[in-house]
Design brief:
alpha+beta, 6-stranded mixed sheet, 20 strands, 27% helix
C-alpha cells in the first residue's frame, strides 16, 4: 500500500509538470486568451481664434409693415397683383368703383361755379351801392346789407371749395396704392365684393429686404457684455450679430445692433435689442423665431474641445487624456462658452494634448488603449 501511494503521487506530479511546461511553451496557441487594448478616438487640441459669443432666441419682424384698408365704401372693381409677389411703391393694387365719386365731384364743381357767380354779383351790387351812397341816393343800411351779402357769397366759395376738395379725396381713395416697396400677402376680398372702412384689412404689405430681428437680453447679460467690450478697448455699440437657421447652418449675412430699447420689461427684467439684416433671398420671414448669436470684441486664441469628451463627477468636470505611452490619465478642467458642439477650455489642458472623445465608458485611468483620430460629424 505504501508503494502504491508513492507511485500514484509520482504520476500526478509528472502530469502537473508536463501541463505547466505546455502552458509556458511558445507554440502557436500562446497568448490566444489575452484581452486586446480598448479602442478609443481622440482629438489633439490646437489653439484656435474664438470670439466671445452669446446665444438668444429672437423673432424676425418686418422693417416696414402696412395694412391696406379701404377708406371709402364701394364695390371692388380691380385687384392688380398676384398674392405673394413683390410690388413697388406707387403701384395701384386695388380699385373701388369710381363712378359714384366722380358724379359727386362733378356736382361739387358745379356748386363752386354757382357760388362764384353769386359772389361776383354780390360784389358788383356792393360797388354800385357804394357809388350811390356818395350822393346819398341810397340808404346806408342798404349798403350794409349789400356788404353782408358779399361776405356771405365769399364764405360760400370757401365752403364749396372745401366740399370739392373732399369729393376729390374720396375719388382718390377709390385707388389703393402701395406706399412702400415690399411683398404683398393674401387678399381678403375678391373683385365684386363690397368693401369699406369697416371691412378691415384688404391685404398686408411687408418690406422683407432689409429685415429686423428682435431679441431680449437680461440686464445682467447686457452689463456683462458691455463691460467685457470696454475692458478690451472696443466699441460697445459695434456688436456683430449672426443668425442660425432651422437646419443648423449660419445665415449668410451678418447684422449689427442698431437699437436698444429705453425701457426694461418689468415682467422679465429684459431689454429689447434689434438688429438689421439683408434678406435678398427672403429666407427670413416676418414672425418666425430664430437663434441669435452675438459676437463682440476681437477674437482670442483658445482651446476648443468636443462636448462629448466631458465627464462630470462630484468633484467637477474632467476629461481623459492619453500620455506618450497611450495610457489614460484624468485631467480636471475649467470650461468657458460653447461654440457650436464644442466648448472652450480655460484651464487644465495644453496645446497638443490628446483627449478621448469616444470610448470613455470602456477605459479607466492607467489603462493602455488603442487610439484613432476623432472625426467630427458631418451635417447634411
Amino acid at each position: 500500500m505504501r508503494w502504491h501511494r508513492r507511485s500514484t503521487f509520482a504520476v500526478l506530479t509528472g502530469c502537473c509538470v508536463f501541463l505547466l511546461a505546455g502552458c509556458g511553451s511558445d507554440g502557436p496557441g500562446a497568448g490566444a486568451g489575452a484581452i486586446p487594448a480598448p479602442a478609443v478616438t481622440v482629438v489633439q487640441l490646437e489653439p484656435e481664434p474664438v470670439t466671445e459669443t452669446m446665444e438668444f432666441v429672437g423673432r424676425v419682424t418686418a422693417r416696414e409693415r402696412v395694412e391696406l384698408r379701404a377708406r371709402v365704401p364701394g364695390f371692388l372693381r380691380e385687384r392688380n397683383f398676384v398674392e405673394g409677389q413683390n410690388v413697388s411703391a406707387g403701384d395701384r393694387l386695388f380699385l373701388i368703383e369710381p363712378e359714384p365719386y366722380q358724379a359727386v365731384l362733378a356736382q361739387r364743381e358745379a356748386d363752386l361755379n354757382r357760388v362764384q357767380a353769386e359772389f361776383t354779383n354780390a360784389r358788383a351790387q356792393l360797388r354800385r351801392g357804394e357809388e350811390l351812397l356818395k350822393d346819398n341816393n341810397i340808404p346806408r343800411a342798404r349798403v350794409d346789407e349789400l356788404r353782408a351779402a358779399e361776405t356771405v357769397a365769399q364764405a360760400g366759395i370757401a365752403q364749396a371749395e372745401a366740399a370739392l376738395q373732399a369729393a376729390q379725396l374720396n375719388l382718390d381713395y377709390t385707388e389703393v396704392f402701395a406706399p412702400i416697396d415690399g411683398s404683398i400677402g393674401l387678399a381678403r376680398y375678391s373683385v365684386g365684393n363690397l368693401v369699406g372702412p369697416e371691412s378691415g384689412v384688404l391685404a398686408t404689405l411687408v418690406q422683407q429686404d432689409p429685415i429686423f430681428v428682435q431679441f431680449p437680453l437680461t440686464q445682467r447679460d447686457l452689463l456683462a457684455k458691455r463691460r467685457v467690450v470696454l475692458e478690451r478697448g472696443g466699441d460697445p455699440t459695434a456688436v456683430v450679430v449672426h443668425l442660425r437657421l432651422a437646419d443648423g447652418s449660419r445665415y449668410g449675412h451678418v447684422g449689427q445692433v442698431d437699437f436698444v430699447d429705453v425701457t426694461v420689461d418689468p415682467g422679465t427684467d429684459t431689454v429689447l435689442l434689434r438688429s438689421l439684416f439683408a434678406n435678398p433671398d427672403s429666407l427670413l420671414l416676418a414672425g418666425q423665431y430664430i437663434e441669435v448669436l452675438i459676437e463682440s470684441g476681437e477674437p482670442e486664441i483658445a482651446l476648443l474641445l468636443p462636448q462629448s469628451a466631458l465627464q462630470i463627477d462630484q468633484t467637477g468636470i474632467f476629461v481623459l487624456v492619453l500620455d506618450d505611452e497611450e495610457r489614460v490619465q484624468v485631467r480636471r478642467i475649467d470650461t468657458g462658452q460653447m461654440v457650436g458642439a464644442r466648448i472652450v477650455v480655460k484651464t487644465g489642458l495644453a496645446p497638443g494634448d490628446r483627449v478621448v472623445v469616444e470610448g470613455v465608458q470602456k477605459v479607466r485611468p492607467g489603462q493602455t488603449v488603442t487610439a484613432a483620430p476623432w472625426q467630427p460629424p458631418v451635417r447634411d
